[in-house]
Amino acid sequence: MKLTRLHVILLLTTALCLPAGTGNAQTSAIAGVVSLPTASTQQRVFRGNLYRNRLVPDRSGPARVVPRSPFDDVVISAHPLDFQSPMANAPPAVRMDQQAARFVPRVLPVTAGARVEFVNQDRFYHNVFSLAPKFDIGRRATGVVVDQVFATPGMVEIFCDIHPQMSATVLVLDTKWFTQPDSTGNFRLDGLPDGRYELHAYHPEHDEIRRTVVIGGGTALMQTFTFGR
Question: pTM score > 0.85 for this model?
Answer without folding.
Answer: no
